[in-house]
Design brief:
about 325 residues; mainly alpha; about 70% helix; disordered C terminus; transmembrane
Length: about 325
């Protein structure tokens, strides 16, 4: 007989859930919660995208509406502080500052798009071609020549190239865009070369080579899609640099010329009034900073999204 109060090992056994459907639902719910917790909102990308959308919205709205004509001069309203009629005040010629900020966003985005487009369309193929030659025993010296030429171009900043273009041609938005774009080519070439070398070492590329697939086909089908994330991140960072370069060139008189509104020219024209009317330099400076910050944060967020190592580190 079993003593009173004694319990058998069976009594200590954990209860068994006889409902397999409930167990499965519980497991699925746990995995769903883990997936949701792994999808963290990237604050850098959200803030950067918001700032970029703000700048783009200003430029787009200026095509259909502005508070005043950008070139309308009103001497009676010169150097006014912010008011309902002129929220950002007026400049030395009585022009509305908010209107100039809105129209100046067009030039900023135009220079960024063209400059980044030049650098991307030239620098990315150069980097891919250089990496393809680096993987061939007979092409190592070609890769070295390409990258040394890239280093020489890297030694020429956008300002120096803009001065050269201004000496050959007249200063303006076009030469400034070309100068900034050429100065950004080495960055795209280095990023594309590094990414291509990583892709060429993968198993699927080796399989494609073993099946006698041609090098151009490998570059288009396998390399480009896999380095697209790196190139997009570089484009976002280069866009921020282009915004700052355009403002600097316009400030020095080598970029956008009068009477076209430009944030850099607004800063240049406000120099002599910094002590009496600092708001003339405040508003273009704020929007230059917002544009640069927005594209930099967007680039950081995209890098975290496209780079598995960075994503795993933040998890």
């Amino acid at each position: 007989m079993k003593p009173t109060g004694a319990q058998s090992p069976r009594d200590h056994a954990d209860p068994v859930d006889l409902n397999p459907a409930a167990a499965t639902a519980s497991a699925n719910g746990g995995s769903a919660r883990s997936r949701k917790s792994g999808r963290r909102v990237n604050a850098s990308m959200v803030i950067g995208a918001g700032l970029v959308v703000l700048i783009v919205a200003l430029a787009l709205v200026s095509f259909v509406w502005t508070p005043y004509d950008a070139n309308a001069i009103d001497p009676a309203a010169r150097l006014q502080n912010g008011s309902l009629a002129h929220p950002f005040g007026t400049d030395t010629f009585g022009r509305d500052t908010l209107t100039w900020v809105m129209v100046g966003a067009r030039i900023t985005l135009l220079v960024g798009v063209v400059a980044v487009g030049i650098a991307l369309l030239i620098g990315t193929p150069i980097g891919i071609i250089s990496a393809l030659f680096a993987k061939q025993p007979w092409g190592i010296w070609i890769d070295s020549v390409i990258m040394r030429a890239n280093d020489i171009l890297l030694a020429f900043p956008a300002l120096l190239l803009a001065i050269i273009f201004a000496a050959v041609y007249s200063p303006g938005t076009g030469p400034a865009m070309v100068a900034v774009g050429i100065a950004a080519i080495p960055g795209f070439a280095r990023v594309a070369r590094s990414g291509t070398l990583q892709v060429l070492g993968t198993e699927y590329v080796r399989a494609a080579r073993a099946s006698n697939r041609r090098i151009p086909a490998i570059a288009v089908v396998h390399v480009l899609p896999n380095i697209a994330g790196m190139v997009i991140v570089q484009a976002s960072v280069a866009f921020a640099i282009s915004v700052l370069a355009e403002a600097g060139l316009s400030f020095l008189g080598l970029g956008t010329q009068a009477p076209t509104p430009s944030w850099g020219r607004m800063l240049q024209e406000s120099q002599q009034y910094l002590s009496t009317h600092p708001e003339l330099a405040l508003w273009p400076g704020v929007f230059i900073a917002l544009a640069v910050l927005g594209f930099n944060l967007l680039g950081d967020g995209l890098r975290d999204r496209f780079d598995p190592k960075m994503e795993a580190r933040g998890a």
